[in-house]
Fold this sequence. Notes:
- The protein is an alpha/beta fold.
- The protein has a single domain (2-61, 69-319), classed as 3-Layer(aba) Sandwich (Rossmann fold).
- 35% of the residues lie in helices and 19% in strands.
- It has an eight-stranded mixed sheet, sandwiched between helices.
- Helix 8 packs across helix 10 and helix 10 (249-257) crosses helix 12 (277-292).
- The chain is globular and about 50 Å long.
Amino acid sequence: MLVTRAVAVGLSLVTVAKVITSAERMSSSQLLGKKLQRLRGVPGCDPSRVNDLLLLQPDTDCSDSSGKSGNKHVVFFHGDIQNFEEEMAQQPEGAQWLSWSLEQVALILSRRFPDSHIWVVRASRMYLHKFSCYSNFVESNMFGAPEHSPYAADIGAFSHLRALLSNGMKRVKLPNPLQPAKGADSIPAGFSLVLVGFSKGCVVLNQMVYELPGALLDPRMSAFIKHISDMYWLDGGHPGGSKTWVTDKQVLKELAASGVSIHAHVTPYEVCDPMRAWMGREHRQFIKTLEEFGACPSNKLHFEDDPPSIENHFRVILEF
């Protein structure tokens, strides 16, 4: 959806440069010097299901009194087009969006969450180098449109994320890593988790919401879920004709009761498009239902006085 609409809007690199100039954008080599580590082929809940990860560790001055880094973690799921910087640069449509490469997003998030480890999960497949497909987390078609399902032990989105984090932490030898799913005693002291989905990446958060009722009944997984402090939906969208936002009342009831802080940040690009009017309706229903169940989700429409644009769609990553 992002790619095809980008052509229609006709934005150029010059437009995006108003948000992040080339001088402000750090090169991959500079980022690698800021504790950015690229982890290829990290296995998840099944050895054959792997994802590439980026990890940007917090600065040393964010460490605790013992000199060890804290155990706060932020996980980001990207949208269409976004990829490693050098891969985006090789694609004509990707080159103009280098300011929003996975490396640059990691840096942006490190400013937003300076005391946390920033994990960027690359989609397992990029159809035509454009369409992000999170099939390791949720069953999806070639364009990344999801087919959501309830919780199934050891194979769902929660299980895959936990295994990715556990294996990723061990690979880089972080102190007190998350252990494989066993129970409360496998969660390291001080561990907390923030989940952020942007655009297509929100399908992973949605799948977790659908899994939530069953996952909370699994003692091996419930202990992990209770350490998720916040979930951020940033201008969610995908090429399917519905279920861009979760509207199922039963699963939203579980989310409202979970204690997780819920945040929705949207722009007119996604929720005010008359050609996809269901997206705005679903977003409103998502917020209204959570409020009816006693949750207090934060909900903000950014750039509401500006015409819908891909520029502002990406800018929500800076503004949330």
